[in-house]
Design goal:
It comes from Massilia niabensis. InterPro entries: AAA+_ATPase, ABC_transporter-like_ATP-bd, ABC_transporter-like_CS, ABC_Transporter_VariousFunc, P-loop_NTPase. The chain is an alpha/beta fold. It has one domain: P-loop containing nucleotide triphosphate hydrolases (Rossmann fold, 3-Layer(aba) Sandwich). The protein has ten helices and ten strands. Helix 4 runs antiparallel to helix 6. Bound molecules: adenosine-5'-triphosphate. Adenosine-5'-triphosphate (ATP) binds next to helix 1.
Length: 248
């Protein structure tokens, strides 16, 4: 098996007396498309923030492309794209100013892709020059996705990237993810509660429960295994059934 891009060894994280991550082990390998699932408050955002080194852990280690996440080189940082759950855009800038700012930070920036996404996702001249603070939640989420895709990341971490998008926005985003990102061999970790979206893009599913990855595997294998255990059932088992079974 190829060397993991992300290697998480026994990380823990408490908030006050609340344990959130508890000796968690996880590996992400090149080219994997992993859907990260768990109940509200299970710790998905915390895990993704620790994975990226944005949040300190209480113990354990995280390595990305072989480097300790606490000391990532600029070259490695430039290979990673991140769409956070809560907008972290510079809301006093306009979309155009913000994208120009990020373009200057990255050694590689795909102008053609950024311009095509801006045009396809409704960022006309007027909207590109409006302060980000005045954009709607969904418009900010689209912009956050465009910013993350600009440097053509090799590892893309998405924390509920479609939660504010309308159905057309979600479809456009999934199409971009499937055609523009995954086909180029990008490794993707994607947390969401919209299971139908996940079924369209994710090949692997990982469940976070009690501070650990309790189950991970190919979506089809997990469904097949759960069907086998359930014996004869009138209805085919869905990812929703599996989610309920695994996370309760
Ligand atoms: N900065 C913080 N201070 C205190 N508690 C926190 C903090 N951040 C998260 N938590 C707690 O840690 C737990 C995990 O939160 P997290 O946001 O990682 O969950 P999640 O799985 O992403 O949830 P959701 O599906 O609702 O987005 C929650 O109980 C939350 O209240």
């Amino acid at each position: 098996m190829n060397t993991p891009i992300v290697e998480i060894s026994s990380i823990s994280k408490h908030f006050g007396s609340q344990p959130v991550l508890n000796g968690l082990e996880w590996q992400v390998r090149p080219g994997q498309i992993i859907g990260l699932l768990g109940r509200n408050g299970a710790g998905k955002s915390t895990l993704l923030e620790c994975l990226l080194g944005l949040r300190e852990t209480d113990g354990g280690s995280v390595r990305i492309y072989g480097e300790d996440v606490r000391n990532l080189s600029d070259a490695t940082r430039a290979r990673i794209g991140y769409v956070p759950q809560k907008s972290d855009l510079f809301d006093w800038l306009t979309p155009r100013q913000m994208l120009d700012y990020f373009k200057a930070l990255y050694p590689r920036w795909n102008d053609a892709k950024v311009d095509a996404l801006l045009a396809r996702w409704g960022f006309d001249k007027l909207m590109q020059n409006k302060p980000i603070s005045k954009l709607s939640g969904g418009e900010q989420q689209r912009l956050s996705i465009i910013r993350a895709l600009g440097p053509d990341p090799e590892l893309l971490i998405l924390d509920e990237p479609v939660s504010s998008l309308d159905p057309v926005g979600r479809r456009d985003f999934l199409r971009e993810l499937i055609d523009g990102v995954i086909e180029h061999g990008t490794t993707v970790v994607f947390s969401t509660h919209i299971l139908s979206d996940l079924e369209r893009v994710a090949l692997d599913i990982a469940f976070l429960k009690d501070g650990k990855i309790t189950l991970q595997g190919h979506l089809d294998d997990l469904l097949e295994g759960a069907r086998g255990q359930a014996g004869t059932r009138a209805e085919p088992l869905s990812l929703e059934d599996l989610f309920i079974e695994v996370t309760q």
